């Protein structure tokens, strides 16, 4: 499946991860140590809030736990990882520090092919890996700030972009050129297609409710306004 690494929650005796759903949306999954039944909530891109699935028992998976899971997984890049299995553990034992450390081996991963084929192909590509590596900060989080800073600098220093701005080209055309040129430089792949670029951007965009290229768009709007 396509998901982030695991994070441990403090609101519940549980772990969680963010997952790329088959619908193309992002969701967050909570796995309690005392139950095999996971809890799923879809990320609402309009509000930034988790929307728990209708069949999720709220007493077992409170909204606060989903919010914590979203916060802890924010910025973590997607990759292809196995399905998570948790051994049955007593909640009281997990709360104990020594027992919690001993419980770590109880988390296992099974190979799993779940996910849209185009998403799997994207996260398994060398191009995606190179871009994630280039713009991941020391905390292991994908940094929209680093990415947008590089894109904005490239836009200001590109003669072709200046020509597009002078010709009042559509913002989308200018943005596509800037992003594609940057991704080609980072990956070393001059044959990178616009379709592949858009799929990578879509995967990066799923990391946070905030649009991945918002700062670049704002900078390009200012360039167009200045003429």
SSE layout:
Blueprint: E1 2-3, E2 7-8, E3 14-20, E4 26-32, E5 39-43, E6 50-52, H1 63-73, E7 79-80, E8 83-86, H2 91-95, H3 97-103, E9 107-110, H4 117-123, H5 126-134, H6 144-156, H7 159-166, H8 171-187, H9 194-205, H10 214-226
Antiparallel strand pairs: 1-7, 2-3, 3-4, 4-5, 5-6, 8-9
The strands making up the biggest β-sheet line up spatially as 2-3-4-5-6
Shape: elongated
Rg from alpha-carbon coordinates:
20 Å
Distance between the termini: 46 Å
- Give the total of beta strands: 9
Whole-number total of structural domains: 2
Sheet-strand content, in percent, reads 15-25%
Give me the number of helical elements: 10
SSE ordering: EEEEEEHEEHHEHHHHHHH
Oligomer: single chain
Instruction: Quickly give the structural class.
Output: alpha+beta
Mean pLDDT: 87
What composes the largest sheet? Answer: 5 strands, antiparallel
Q: What are the low-pLDDT stretches, counting only 5+ consecutive residues below 50? A: 89-113
Helical content stands at: 40-55%
